[in-house]
What does this fold into?
Amino acid sequence: MTFQERPLDRDASSVGAAGGRDTVPTPTSNSVAVHLNGLRRRFGGVQALDNLDLEMAPGELIALLGPSGCGKTTALRVLAGLEDADSGRVLVGGKDITELPANRRDMGMVFQAYSLFPHLTALQNVEFGLGLRRVRSAQRRERAGAMLDLVGIGTHADRYPHQLSGGQQQRVALARALAIQPQVLLLDEPLSALDAKVRVQLRDEIRRIQLEVGTTTLFVTHDQEEALAVADRVGVMRAGRLEQLGPPDEVYQRPSTAFVADFVGLSNRLPGTVSGDRVEVLGTALPLVPGAASGIGSGAVNALVRPEAVDLAVDPDGRGRVLAASFLGPTSRVSVAMPDETMVVAQVASALLPELAPGTAVRIELRPVPVVVEAA
Amino acid sequence: MTTVAHQPDAAPVDQHRDPVPASAKWRAGWRRGRQLTGVVPFFAFIVVFLVIPTLVVAVGAFGSNDGRPTLDNLSALGDGYIVDAFVRSILLSAVTAVIGAILGALLAYALVTAKPDGILRRLVTSACGVLAQFGGVMLAFAFIATIGLSGFVTLFLKDQLGIDLYSGGVWLFDLPGLMLVYTYFQIPLMVIVFLPALDGIRPQWREATESLGGSTWQYWRRVAMPLLAPAFLGSTLLLFANAFSAYATAAALVSQGSPIVPLQIRSALTSEVVLGQQNLGKAMALGMVVVVAVVMWLYAYLQKRTSRWLG
Ligand SMILES: Nc1ncnc2c1ncn2[C@@H]1O[C@H](COP(=O)(O)OP(=O)(O)O)[C@@H](O)[C@H]1O
Ligand SMILES: [Mg+2]
It folds into this structure.
């Protein structure tokens, strides 16, 4: 890491490249890099942030995930100082920076698109922040060059933004944000203007670079696959507050609310009956995610069941009938109609597809993985 | 477009050497011609109002009254009173272009900070559209009626406040007056031509500068001004050309003397005292064409740079 010449007096450096997936940093009171505390922000009639709390550990990458308009961008902009909160505090490295203007917060920011200065070359764009910090020209050039190499675009240093593709522009924007060795890296849907293939490629590379430099990072996206792929922890947002915050597998496998189960991945909504800590669905008693039925009590509910928790078997006596199948590569999704007109989507190995022509009678079995329920 | 000869409705192809019969060729030409009919008015306009006058001016500038080629007209452009007129024309255009550009740019900036589809912005842009064209007799009359020798503002200031606008001479009908009146249509023109460049400035650039540690001043100094400079200079040139070639306003305002080139040309073309000066007028017009051509070439160059950045 030749570009980190400046001595870093932040705890972020102590975690550094070690903050990978295997050593997920968990926030403890004295190792919190970023603390958003009770943020509220109202725009006219819209409560964009509604008592948002979030703690980020040093070196951690948190993905804020949620539908459009749920307040992700507002949260990120309040952290960056580009937007003021109506109430609540922002702390970085234990210091309260709520009143600090954006240009003194030391945050690297990557926008959705078109954020490079169009009159400057890629190299000059990356040098820009260093120039503002009065870094000497030779040193500036060297560090900017190293950053461009890091994001894999060193050979395009002399190109202007309009001579670069969208993906290349985002790489330069990332290099520009990292060149100032920010305390926090903020990315607001940095991939959503790119086409699918570039998106996946750049997504993985952003993660690689983030692990390499070890900067605490907030990554805003509405794409659940993206969030699950890059993050140490995923924060699912809804209407200005955090609905669930946890490692990707936890958010996916043990969604704490129906909203999360619905928004992250695909879920069947199947009628069931709650009794105790179980819910009976299609003749199978499934365990409930702890706390999932609180406030609902017992009785008729809808259980949210993942397609991959549904097993299909061809059975002439089965009560289900195959409606349709869609091929997704190694696996496929098959929709099955039950006698009571409930529709169940199952994920099956694509090798089984030939046996599952529409109209085929099938038997359905649910795997006993914990599910969440919502009032019917 | 597919080739007409292969279309089923084309005339039957005869078996001789030419696979496309004359009738089909004619039809092809006719169709192609029809596609071009849309632009005919445009070209006709260019020919009638630009090409022909320029040719007439250029040919006339090099001809004597009896039609022989001569350089006399061009060398007469060096006469003191014509040089003076050019100097005053250029001064008038430059001063009103710079003042108009600065004030117009400030007004345009105020507009972009307002809501883009808000009532204020729509109102001011439409007003500018009208005012930028509000030259000629009407504008001159408006000034005469307000701050002319017996305009109501002049009289009010004199009678009520004891201020005499004309204590230093009848400036309204000379160069200072022209500058004031021209500025009146230069500012709205600047608003119209500069607004698109300001709209091209993305808010991300300011926010990126801020997050990289830049102050507002650094943003203007290092980002906004370099980006807007070509558009600003280009617009100033356009304003220069606009003032330089304006005639009607000056003609309506100035009835004695000919301080600027367009009025000199008028007197050369209409003089009853000295006959046969038409070709001198054409030589002056050619001089104006050259000045405007240089200015517009610079304008086009700057415009190209701007559109690459702010498109
Ligand atoms: N500057 C603003 N003025 C008015 N409303 C805004 C502004 N910024 C955001 N909002 C509103 O706040 C809500 C949250 O916006 P945002 O944070 O951009 O959501 P997200 O990034 O999750 O899509 C939306 O309803 C949006 O319309
Ligand atoms: Mg957003």
Remarks:
- Residues 196-213 of chain A form the longest helix (18 residues).
- The two ends of chain A are 55 Å apart (CA to CA).
